[in-house]
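Below is the record:
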Amino acid sequence: MHKGRLSAASHLPDHVLVLVEGVNRRMHRELLEAGDPPHPRGGFMRLLQMIPERGIRITDLAALSGMTKQSLGEFVNAMEEDGLVVSEKLPSDRRVRVVVRTADGERVAREVSARIAAVEQAWRKEAGPERYDTMKAVLYDLGMESFGTRTEPEA
């Protein structure tokens, strides 16, 4: 389809997995080009974005992020040490650990969201609003179910 654009990577297959990886790489590159990351540990950014304001159980965050509970627990411990989240056991069930963003975690999550929105706005202009909106709608339809939700996207 667009093989002429790939030049040095022309040997790569022209399928969705490669294309989505390319978009992911470009997003990361453009976020870094926007300035210093809002937090030195970039891996925390995705997880901070997944924590709702009221908090989330470790088990649910692990499922949402595609991580094991053990790996996620280590990430949460490190984010707690960095002051981005707090975690507490539920008084009603001491086995359940709930993670909530701190004020600093909220600030970092807002900054990441703003940077992503700026990149998306530039891409929408580059691709054209109709094409960009269609692409996003298709990605939403194809991918949101894997996060366990099929709610309508925000306007």
About this structure: The beta strands are 56-57, 85-90, 93-101.
